[in-house]
Design a protein that fits this description.
The complex is a heterodimer of chains A (251) and B (449). In chain A, 37% of the residues lie in helices and 14% in strands. With 251 residues, chain A is α+β, with helices and mostly antiparallel strands. In chain A, α1 packs parallel to α2. Chain B has 17 helices and 16 strands. In chain B, the strands form 4 sheets. A 5-stranded mixed sheet of chain B has the order 2-1-5-3-4, sandwiched between helices. In chain B, strands 8-9-12-10-11 form a 5-stranded antiparallel sheet. Chain B has 449 residues and is an alpha+beta fold. In chain B, α2 runs antiparallel to α5. The chains are: A alpha+beta (251), B alpha+beta (449).
């Protein structure tokens, strides 16, 4: 429902219909209109497959009308309307017994940091992030999801502490809960590793959350390489780094 | 509680002259969204931390949540709705679309206007300059890469539009005095009931949500006496309503109070620096105000006026307690006097939790003048470490002795003065350690010239 699902479903439909993606409007999911899909972990491939199935039927009905005429989207739709051909369909996708039904994302993150050992300040210079992205339907959007997730991950790793005192959030506004700004965001090299369809299902998946997950561990590993101290608590603040360095090398 | 008065404004909005009546407690953001139904500017935080409400006023990016509506009387205002011309997207918008710089879209109008204001001033811009120009605008979903790339692309062929001559409205002078005398009279007559607002970046932040507080404000940013920057025989005078951006760009100030422009550049993002003023930073009396340590090491004196009197007070004596000043209710800070000290060098060092706008964990300002290669005058002050800005005469004396031993003793003396308590921005231990380091970095920088 987040993670770019709407855009993804729209792209899947547009691809089959042969129209521009921005002509497709995806209505918000509503439990009163769809059957129970059991779990939120339903592989997205099943959803795009169902969308494709419905789109194929619509496209089939259109092709029957326009026959061999050059396919101009607008004229074709108008022709169908004139001949009272309904352009409407339901689509289906059913998980095969053999497929395990889960869409596991594999990712690798490399973070380059510079640690000022005098102040304990960490500067992230570059992040390289490779993601198994299934089949990429919208490359710019997919890359954007990666970049956004990475910078959020950096925020969790280095800035975004939240303490609760007497039931109140100490970092209760954006001057205290500091998220990365454009000056804090590093250069990002992202790599979408495409995995094409397999097991009879669309290898399509979402990219919104996964990119965040690996960043903090990679930052912690990079800081360890730089200064030789492991940190097990986020965010890794300059205060903690200095304290660790002080305790390690007593004067 | 005072009910808001109606105020009649005239200004130029997106190339069109406009006349409108609004309430005296409306912010520019309220005027745009609630009355003009221009919904592009967003209220993200209402406190100047997110930039989603950014618009352009007289060519500068400003925060419409921290600007009173009547402050744009006679100004030229640009909002995202005006970027498009004749049904065609502005090239910046085209680049945002093409480069995928829009995800959820909440920050987009603010980003576009922050970028346009920067490019109108200077184009093309380098990547670092672009990231700096956008640093007052938070985005949670793009990671900024595509936004910066879009601005970079637009930057290559950007041409600022032709300026539009602003027109002035019929604003009652009560809200917008045009001379010092008028302003002081308002203060004297409505003693205790009226508060001056200039940049608004602090006072509107603290009365967010309180209509009654906003209704008692009046604008002093058009008082010419407060905007003066004067080169006098043995001092310079810096008017209280000069903005942080203006101070940062002044060679005169850089010559005689070199730590002050650096301190001003450390404040907020571009939007805050474009409107926030020196006088406001001092009157807010926050122990975190970056200009205070910078002015302390310049031996600055405040000039304070009321309708009946005029007096001066050294900056060190101006703050009796945190968030309190020595200002009487009918008094105004006219400006700051900085004595000229030949060959003075000064540095402002600051540790911040992030590179973008943020309060300092600790800052150290240091000013030195040299004679025959040795320091013959030293000032050291540190901010952000507790309830007040601290000047350390002991550290100054140690540093005057010169040499490595002098520096070591100055570091120690300074660390002694740091309150041991932890607070939400840092720990006492860390600050005690860092204060000496910042001093050493400042001294090295000054010695290198």
């Amino acid at each position: 429902v987040g993670e770019g699902l709407q855009a993804l479903l729209g792209h899947a439909a547009a691809e089959v219909l042969g129209c521009a993606p921005d002509l497709v409007r995806v209505l918000p999911a509503d439990t009163s209109r769809v059957c129970d899909l059991e779990s939120f972990m339903t592989p997205v491939g099943l959803l795009t497959e169902a969308v494709r199935d419905a789109a194929k039927r619509v496209r089939g009905a259109m092709d029957a009308v326009t026959a061999d005429a050059g396919f101009q989207w607008r004229e074709a739709v108008e022709a169908c309307v004139r001949r009272r051909v309904p352009l409407m369909s339901h689509g289906f996708a059913i998980a095969s017994e053999s497929a395990d039904g889960s869409a596991v994302t594999t990712a690798a993150n490399v973070v380059e940091v510079e640690v000022d050992t005098e102040t304990g300040g960490v500067r992230v210079l570059r992040v390289h992030s490779a993601h198994d992205a299934g089949r990429v339907l919208d490359p710019i959007n997919a890359e954007g999801q990666l970049e956004g997730g990475i910078v959020q991950g950096l925020g969790f790793a280095l800035l975004e502490g939240h303490r609760v005192e007497e039931g109140r959030l100490v970092e209760g506004d954006l001057s205290r809960y500091l998220v990365p700004t454009s000056m804090d965001a590093p250069e990002i090299q992202s790599l979408l590793v495409e995995q094409l369809d397999e097991g009879g299902h669309d290898r399509v998946q979402l990219l919104g959350e996964a990119p965040m997950v690996g960043v903090a561990p990679a930052v912690a590993a990079a800081v360890y390489q730089a200064v030789g101290v492991r940190f097990h608590e986020l965010p890794i603040l300059p205060e903690a780094i200095r304290k660790a360095l002080r305790e390690r090398r007593p004067k | 509680m005072r009910t808001p008065d109606p105020v009649d404004l005239a200004f130029t909005l997106n190339r069109q002259p406009i006349r409108i009546r609004t309430g005296s407690s409306s912010r520019l953001l309220d005027l745009l969204r609630d009355e003009l139904r221009l919904l592009g500017a967003k209220e993200g935080c209402g406190a100047g931390d997110c930039g989603a409400c950014t618009v352009i006023v007289n060519g500068a990016a400003v925060l419409s949540c921290l600007t009173m509506a009547y402050q744009v009387d006679g100004a030229t205002v640009e909002t995202v709705e005006g970027l498009e011309e004749g049904g065609r997207l502005h090239p910046l918008q085209e680049c945002f679309v093409e480069r995928g710089a829009v995800q959820c879209g909440f920050c987009t109008p603010g980003m576009l206007l922050a970028a346009k204001a920067a490019l109108d001033r200077k184009a093309p811009l380098g990547l670092d300059e672009i990231r700096e120009a956008l640093s007052g605008n938070l985005c949670r979903c793009t990671g900024y890469a595509k936004i910066a790339a879009a601005v970079m692309r637009a930057s290559a062929s950007h041409s600022p539009g032709s300026p539009v001559a602003p027109e002035r409205g019929a604003l009652p002078s009560y809200y917008c005095p045009r001379s010092l005398e008028e302003a002081l009279e308002i203060l004297a007559q409505r003693e205790g009931e009226s508060k001056p607002v200039a940049g608004g970046t602090d006072i509107l932040r603290s009365c967010r949500g309180f209509l009654s507080d906003r209704g008692s404000l009046f604008d002093i940013s058009n008082v010419p006496e407060l905007k003066e920057l004067e080169d006098r025989a043995d001092s310079i005078f810096v008017g209280a309503a000069l903005t942080h951006a203006e101070i940062a760009a002044s060679p005169l100030i850089r010559q005689w109070a070199p730590a002050l422009p650096s301190a001003c550049l450390a404040i907020g993002g571009p939007q805050v620096r474009n409107r926030g003023t020196l006088g406001g930073n001092l009157a807010s009396a926050s122990p975190l105000a970056d200009t205070i340590p910078a002015l302390m090491v310049a031996d600055a004196t405040l000039e304070i006026v009321s309708i009946e009197s005029r007096r001066t007070i050294p900056i060190g004596d101006f703050f009796p307690a945190p968030f309190q000043t020595g200002l009487a209710r009918d008094e105004l800070i006219l400006g700051v006097l900085i004595p000229k000290r030949l060959g003075v060098r000064a540095s402002f060092e600051r540790l911040s939790p992030r590179r973008g706008p943020s309060w300092a964990k600790i800052s150290v300002a240091c000013a030195v003048s040299f004679k025959d290669g040795h320091p013959d005058w030293v000032r050291i002050a540190m901010g952000g470490v507790g309830p007040k800005v601290i000047r350390s005469e002991e550290a100054e004396a140690a540093l005057l002795q010169g040499g490595y031993e002098g520096l070591r003793r100055a570091r120690e003396a300074l660390a002694q003065e740091v309150p041991p308590e932890d607070d939400l921005r840092s720990t006492g231990d860390y600050r005690r350690e860092m204060t000496g380091l910042l001093l050493e970095r400042a001294v090295r920088r000054l010695a290198d010239g």
